[in-house]
Write a structure and sequence with these properties.
Distance between the termini: 63 Å
Number of strands: 4
Keywords: Membrane, Transmembrane, Transmembrane helix
Protein name: DUF4191 domain-containing protein
Structural class: alpha+beta
Shape: elongated
Number of helices: 8
Strand content: 5-15%
Helix content: 55-70%
Strand order of the largest sheet: 1-2-3-4
InterPro entries: DUF4191
Length: 235
């Protein structure tokens, strides 16, 4: 009885948290998409109305009404989720580090290392390793990123010679991938590595280090006006 009471109290405490999170997500989405409430409600009413009408036609309005309610709730959740995701990407797009935030949510099986390379203009390259190989995701000026990507590939070529390397430049121009499509683009890549091969590649790259771990940060407050020197490494 004590365990059951504890479990019930935990569920009760979790539900307000979930409701609060949903409400917060709705408020944030509504700022970028003012019609989200009307669209979601409209989808729910249409689905419920269609199922209920079919129920009257076949003589089972109660059963079809219950089914319509459940399907309407599911449809509303799907539509709201997609519009919330679109609004979130719209707010993130163009912000420094947006690609790194997307990579952190690619899914299981991927190991992400943000900011493995950066130049003084704050163009940055992030790295993700999975069964598709190594994916370098770059954000910043496309012309400068080509040089940055080439340098990172050359550096990795000495460590992981048998692992395929893909590169993605985030943007809306020709040959670029919009921020909202980075995750789906990565998930569509063919899986060519086994689990042990992915682990071995991660170990080699980890031994090589990255920009953040190799950067000798000074003790105390960062000096004002400090900039990244040429070559992308602080000395």
């Amino acid at each position: 009885m004590a365990r059951k009471a504890k479990s019930d109290s935990g569920d009760a405490a979790a539900n307000p948290g979930r409701l609060k999170q949903i409400a917060l997500t709705y408020k944030m989405t509504r700022k970028a998409d003012p019609k989200v409430g009307l669209v979601v409600a409209g989808v729910g009413l249409v689905v419920f109305g269609v199922l209920l009408a079919i129920g009257f036609l076949i003589g089972h309005p109660v059963y079809l009404g219950i089914l319509g309610f459940l399907l309407a709730f599911l449809a509303m959740a799907i539509v709201f989720g997609r519009r919330a995701e679109r609004a979130a990407f719209g707010q993130m797009e163009g912000q420094p580090g947006a690609a790194a935030a997307v990579l952190q949510n690619v899914g299981r099986g991927w190991t992400t290392t943000p900011a493995v390379a950066m130049n003084r203009n704050q163009d940055v390259v992030h790295r993700a390793v999975g069964k598709a190989g190594i994916v370098l995701v770059a954000e910043g000026n496309p012309n400068r990123l080509k040089t940055l990507l080439a340098a990172e590939k050359k550096k990795m070529a000495r460590i992981v010679v048998d692992v395929p390397v893909h590169d993605i430049i985030v943007g809306n121009g020709e040959g670029q991938v919009p921020l909202k499509k980075v995750r789906t683009t990565m998930l569509k890549l063919p899986r060519v590595l086994s689990g042990p091969q992915v682990t071995a590649a991660n170990d080699r790259l980890r031994a090589m280090g990255d920009l953040m771990s190799n950067m000798p940060l000074p003790k105390g407050p960062m000096p004002k006006g400090m900039r990244m020197p040429r070559g992308g490494k602080m000395r």
